[in-house]
Amino acid sequence: MAVKRSTILWAAVVAAAVVxxxxxxxxVLVYGVQRAGLYAAVAIPMALVLGIVHIVNLAHGELMMVAxxxxxxxxxxLLGLDPFVAMVPVALVMAAFGWLxxxxxxxxxLKAPELNQLILTFGLAIAFSQIANLAFTSQSFKLxxxxxxxxxxxxxxxxxxxxxxxxxxxxxxxxxxRLFLQRTRMGKAALAVGQNPRGAxxxxxxxxRTYGIIFSIAVGLMGIVGSxxxxxxxxxxxxxxxxxxxxxxxxxxxxxxNIVGVLYCSLALGLSEAVINGIRGYAGWSNIVFFAIxxxxxxxxxxxxxxx
Amino acid sequence: xxxxxxxxxxxxxxAAAALLPLVSGPYPLAVARSVLTYMALAISWDxxxxxxxxSFGIAGFFGLGAYxxxxxxxxxxxxxxxxxxxxxxxxxxxxxxxxxVILRLRAVYFSITTLALAEIFRVIIQNWSDFTGGxxxxxxxxxxxxxxxxxxxxxxxxxxxxxxxxxxxxxxSRIRLALSAIRNNEQSAAASGIGIFKYLxxxxxxxxxxxxxxGGIQLQGYxxxxxDAVFDSNYTLLPLAMALLGGIHGxxxxxxxxxxxxxxxxxxxxxxxxxxxVVYGIIIVLVILFMPQGLxxxxxxxxxxxxxxxxxxxxxxxxxx
Amino acid sequence: MSTLETxxxxxxxxxxxxxxNVSFSLDRGEILGVIGPNGSGKTTFINLVSxxxxxxxxxxxxxxxxxxxxAPHLRARAGIARTFQLIHPLQSLxxxxxxxxxxxxxxxxxxxxxxxxxxxxxxxxxxxxxxRGVAEITMLETKKMEIARALANNPEILFxxxxxxxxxxxxxxxxxxxxQSVSRRHNIGVGVVEHVMSVIRDLTHRVIVxxxxxxxxxxxxEEVSRNPRVIAAYLGGAA
Lengths: 308, 321, 239
Ligand SMILES: Nc1ncnc2c1ncn2[C@@H]1O[C@H](COP(=O)(O)OP(=O)(O)OP(=O)(O)O)[C@@H](O)[C@H]1O
Ligand SMILES: [Mg+2]
Fold this sequence. Notes:
Largest sheet of chain A: 2 strands, antiparallel
Helix content of chain C: 40-55%
Bound molecules: adenosine-5'-triphosphate, magnesium ion
Distance between the termini of chain C: 38 Å
Strand content of chain A: under 5%
Number of domains of chain C: 2
CATH class of the largest domain in chain C: Alpha Beta
Number of domains of chain A: 1
Number of strands of chain A: 2
Shape of chain A: globular
CATH superfamily of the largest domain in chain C: P-loop containing nucleotide triphosphate hydrolases
Oligomer: heterotrimer
Number of helices of chain A: 12
CATH topology of the largest domain in chain C: Rossmann fold
């Protein structure tokens, strides 16, 4: 009941915001939604890992960066593949890489205190971004694809449409993962492991393997996201870092294990960022709004949790 | 038998460090200065870590200190030495106010928030151009001690001495017991009458104060601050890796770690200009996996039980206390 | 008015009512048994009194003062001490340091003085070689250390959450004697949560029985143990 009321409240707030933005600057709405799509697409795999393996992967954004480099140098430069094609092999390679990371590092830290895991994945993040630095220097790379500048005009407002791809992918990821977790054997086992690893082990589920598979799926998905990221964005070794932070914040806002919730939270944040960006002279402040909102949410949540 | 030695070693080390400029050339001295800078940061990071809270925001308070020092000279007309003190006080005051709020968070929620704070500081300074000079940064008209390298070195050494003194004070007083108890188990700690919040706040403010001082000294030593330079994530990464390698939860670990990694980094920087920091990432990973107690901990574990980074497990869904 | 009194104490976790409308009192020098089947709310009750959780409703009075919303460490300082069912001794500290905490932080002593006092209290409980780490001591020693830690707060009320669990018959007997002498010597009101009925019988003046968070019976052990409702809920369930 309480959940329902708050949902209605949120819907009302978002609707009001949307109307206001439409009256003010319609393009802001478009860019807000597109930005939200990107954030959600990046954050959802992290939500999957946190929900089931219960580990905060601080190397999350860096894995996207690795995937993007892979898509750029191997798939595009070497094999001449368009990122939309490249995302399949890149996802597979990344999934294998994820499995390897799990087996070599994460697995051994699962029984250690959470803070060890945090520092471990922080170290991985540094290692990945510095290896990229070592291999490609800090120079940035960008594809120039003609289709990314596709635009549409409604009334007298024209805007880029390509970035809606992110929205589509985010929704696909959320829905797909939900179906996977609820309908498939593997997914159900994963959910069981996420809720109660010991219980799952008792009924004969291989917990370690499940963790490995889920981690590997998540990293594989980062292969898709990274390839898509490459279509329009310039990539450099540090490009992933901010996304780790933003993803974690979104996942925390949505609540651990709530994959669909990540979509809503991304929308709220994408829109507010776009609004700030839309105010002339204040574009530089948009990051801070993001973080301020997020810190506030984390705090409110922690407070509520305590009272509960 | 151990007593006199445990007094003697730090004293000898300090004497050696203080005399270094008299015998060393300009290049080793510059390296030593950078090692000492990171050493002070590593010690300050460890001081908060003893409570079980991991900060990823060292660069944030360091950068805040650098800007506080720069602005207090340029806009407030403060003397250089005073501006360094002001940098520490300012960083400490910001930590106090923010700490009242964010120290209610635990584990990853606290860590990520500190990371985000560093970013927020950077964005504010970058965008508040009228006052802070914006992305181009600020330049001091003249360096402290006219940029004389020996004096600058001793200044940084003074920061290390302050950090070591504060850290030792933590270790020799009730603060050590309070922080260890909090790290081990908050419920048990509270049941012994420990005001958890108060001690977290003390640790957070003191460690931020030191980071601010170091930032102020860095600014006075180089005469330049820009958002990208002073909020560089290396100021978080290097101290963290140094403390982990040397061994956490005490003063000797970060000191040893900073010496080893600081000198190694200088060597690597010469040979691999890009990406030499990969070593730091790998060291962090290896230390956590194979040697969570660090080098000093390894030495000590002959006598005592092994201490991992944090002994208490936090539930995956733990939002706060 | 008793030293410690609760009125209508209730605590919900989501839909579950872990402690339901519990009113009770405990005086200095008295030893009270708190029994009930697994999950009946005994530990939660102690958590409410010691401030780990805030109650959903009801109030807690200590020495005539309302402490319902006081922080845990303030209650410890005021004189409510406890041990934990899932013992979590502080493993970075030695046995002595564990015991010193209460002297330092509840009573505000200086380090040197706290060390002397910790040695004294450990001595009186038969705890020795206090420089050992917590990982190196036996179960009995751990339990004694927990009691010493609690006593270091200078409590007027002390809750022991299954301190006998994991001890053998001889050790249990020793602990029973220890608790009795501690209560008498320091004039402390002790609340004992215990599953071993012989301990409750030998130790307590009075017993309250919880089931599903509610008090279903109260009185001397002999009387309560014959209560059909208690037998049905607890003794029957345990058999
Ligand atoms: N933090 C919590 N969140 C949710 N439920 C809880 C929490 N703490 C306790 N409970 C529930 O409250 C009920 C009472 O638990 P409690 O630990 O107080 O029982 P107990 O009488 O001490 O049992 P035992 O004899 O096994 O120690 C149980 O159903 C337990 O699952
Ligand atoms: Mg219990």
